[in-house]
Amino acid sequence: MIRTVLRMGDPRLLIKAQPVAAFDAPELQALLADMRDTMAYLDGVGLAAPQIGVALRVVIFGFEANARYPEAAPVPNTVLINPQLTPLSTEEEEGWEGCLSVPGLRGVVPRWKRLRYTGFDEYGQRFEHEVEGFHARVVQHECDHLDGILYPMRIRDFSRFGYTDVLQEGQTPEE
Ligand code: NI
Predict the structure, then answer these.
(1) Which architecture, in CATH terms, is 11-64+72-163?
(2) Which of 3, 16, 128, 138 could form a disulfide with 118 if both were Cys (CB 3.0 to 4.6 A apart)?
């Protein structure tokens, strides 16, 4: 079922979400189905449970190709529950981000360039990945939602934050 995505300003986006305790629960599968439907409907590259008002540490992400980020390499479709992120170096990278909870806007956000993430899939199986670039960016963006952090809170240079339809060509290399 397609759910309403909360928009910035809603206090539910600022809550620190709780870990998932039961993996074999039908509620979890129903939540994931709704998240997939909602992300597909809005053509997103990722979605976190708090964005549909569920304060659990669950994110999904992945795409083959996405109109919002045409330059980005594909990211495998992933369910990530109770994630832990560890940077693999202190190196940061800047890149344009948008968010379904902040519609119509884009901004340049610094993120760790390379990281390891661990967590659980929808069956409660633990897994681990080392990623970099846009994949690492998406993981950091989605997992921030679990701690009540929206990407504008990470922006350092507000001269590179604006409305997608106003930003000039060349200012948004991901578009
Ligand atoms: Ni977001």
Answers:
(1) Alpha-Beta Complex (3.90)
(2) 128
